[in-house]
């Protein structure tokens, strides 16, 4: 089968090209003349690049047609190892151009660990020369391409270049111990909104442990239903991915199962969306049993509708014509397992919610008011809790450092105390599955007596981030809660950082803490009055009523 851009090619010519798979090639010949001759002929007829992938045994594994100046590079591998070559070399034509290898050619050689990459220069319908490249010594664990000079077709050192492949393979195997352990995945970020949104995605990707190799912004009013960015842009993206040696694509929106599948087919690498990335970060951060249960529930809720298959026709109740056979498909079995596991998780999370409700009831009896820290992720909420309470909760300059709620007692300078709760940070496009799964945790916010809405004074998008927090609070039913705006990180604030009515503090230096505690005390206890009552013995029942109310 001929792959790639075959639109408009006669069926008879495609059938003739298909015969390339049956050629018996000499395994000692790097570029067998009979194969090169036919490749040049087809490329001249089509005015398109033609590539052929050949195994070391001399078998043609793939034939692909491209456009005038490029050709898609399928991931054809015989040997799958990070330490050795893949056992396949690529020959391709450059119609009406020189045989000089492009950067994309060289990066494809590295990323696919091909035995060799060779280009055939053409002028009209004849070959003018060939240039090849092989993998050489590693630099920081990555083998570097080494190019030959351009040689005439009659002077190709066939056997010498085949020996060069064996030398490259031995070199990679001998230097395998130099490979860095746990090398971070290289990611290409893709979005359709703005560079600011992609910068936040970069922070998320780096928090998850990825290395951002490139960024692609394709401005669109709405995502393409098939490929998110459009098929043409997706094809361009695949070349950039090869050139930058990316292992994955991260998209700045939630994708459907079909969009993920189509992008993976076009780009040849793993594709994940923003929701998957955030869920992965939460999975890394989850320490408590409750946190792990809630993350698993969010992940399964997200995965279930993206298992693309036959749907109703495979259900046990559907039945009928077309469903009789040896048994259920693996896909439908996976769906049922996920549903069963989700039911179990929901029951466990509901039990956790009941336990938290009991704990809240006990806290109310202690008559200590509850103050909840809320805000965008990485605004310094945990640092603020540590500064106010003297605790040593993990506080790092990273997204979602806090996942499980943390509660500490804070003493007020003029007497009295309150419980301060640190909760998970919010973010733009917060996955709905995550909000639903963590609803029992976020109940601490809903049930709090007062909210401290923490904003980052060093953040350019301060107003937008605050709007996101207000939106999430509204969705949780806490939009009307009494609230104090807190502008944190004033020690490194931007000159134009303004938030009317906010208490300006620095959790790092301690600046503004006294003013914040005074404002908290005023909000919590302003309506309270100390009174002395004289209750007759005959009305002693009032004492129990006062305690209860």
Number of helices: 16
Coarse structural class: alpha/beta
Describe the global form: elongated
N-C termini distance: 81 Å
Strand content: 15-25%
Oligomeric composition of the shown chains? single chain
Number of strands: 17
Mean pLDDT: 83
Poorly predicted regions are 309-324
Q: Please indicate the count of domains.
A: 4
Give the strand order of the largest sheet, numbering strands 1, 2, ... along the chain: 1-3-2-4-5-6-7
Largest sheet: 7 strands, mixed
| Radius of gyration of CA atoms, rounded to a whole number | 32 Å
As a percent range, the share of helical residues equals 25-40%
Commentary on this structure:
- Residues 309-324 have low confidence and may be disordered.
- The protein is α/β, with parallel strands linked by helices and 549 residues long.
- Strands 1-3-2-4-5-6-7 form a 7-stranded mixed beta sheet, sandwiched between helices. It has a 6-stranded mixed beta sheet with strand order 13-14-12-15-16-17, sandwiched between helices.
- Helices cover 38% and strands 19% of the residues.
- It has helices spanning 11-18, 33-46, 103-112, 158-174, 195-208, 231-244, 257-267, 274-285, 289-303, 330-365, 381-389, 432-437, 439-446, 462-476, 513-525, 541-548, and strands at residues 2-4, 50-55, 60-65, 88-94, 116-123, 126-139, 142-147, 186-191, 211-217, 248-251, 270-273, 370-375, 406-411, 417-422, 450-456, 483-488, 503-504.
- 36% of the residues are buried.
- The chain has 16 helices and 17 strands.
- The longest helix has 36 residues, at 330-365.
- A hairpin with a 2-residue loop joins strand 6 (126-139) and strand 7 (142-147).
- The chain folds into 4 domains: 2-178, no CATH class; 186-281, Rossmann fold, CATH 3.40.50.11060; 286-319 and 326-361, no CATH class; 367-525, P-loop containing nucleotide triphosphate hydrolases (Rossmann fold).
